[in-house]
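Board notes, transcribed. Complex of a protein with manganese (II) ion.
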Amino acid sequence: MLPGISFADAESTFEEADFVIYGVPFDRTTSFRPGTREGPHEIRKSSYNFETFMFEHEADTEDIKLHDLGNMDDFGLVDHMVAEGEVVIGNIVANGKFPIVLGGEHSVTIPAVRSFEDISYISIDAHLDFRDSHLGERNSHACVTKRCADHLGLENVFVIGCRSISKEEWRSGPLPGYLDSYTVFEIGIEKAVKEALDSVGNEKVYISLDIDGIDPAFAPGTGTPEPFGLTPYDVKKLINIVGDRMVGFDVVEVSPIYDNGNTAALAARMVREAICVATKHRS
Ligand code: MN
Ligand code: MN
């Protein structure tokens, strides 16, 4: 694939693959500090850090049929990115494969979720992302939950770990289901995920990991760092509890220019976690 390298162990062709990785190096609606366009490349590089064998799953990524489509290379405005993403990710889903999207900013999730019908959407995010538009842009990364709710129904979206909600969002009427990070800390991640899964209506779940949902102590490389975040272990558990209900996964908002390397490594590790958990349920 061009340019750059593919995700570790992505040795299968598209036709034979069960899992397909797609990078969207888009960061044009970023509100505070840009840089997530470098996310897909750094996450792929970090993916070579790990043993192919994951003992706790008794899975080896060398045995998993994984394909890397490379990056979206042709987009202009955010609406172009969304349209192109719907074509490519839609094709992955239409072929019965499990999509894994590497951002880029959170708006890259919009075409991924629109590639499905009748699913639920659970995000891990410091932010509610429930504005109807932001700086005049409806497909802004600050509007992702709202766009997913437009597509799936408000009852089918849920945000875990948020701790930043604007007054505009707070007063905008019915909010999506959410558990803030303070509550997650009090009740524990198992109970939080159970509450999320009981809340959403559709059985199948797309998980979106906005890396700023994790505490900036663990994930400093992001555009909008927010203290009081979840731990990496919380997110690992979440992926495992969702388990066989998971039909798609993304990791977004990794901004390598603010990273010490740990954020990209964490993102790559979460992709590997999602693949190994999902593969248990496909075979
Ligand atoms: Mn977000
Ligand atoms: Mn966020």
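The CA atoms of residues 165 and 171 lie 10 Å apart. The chain has one domain: 19-280.
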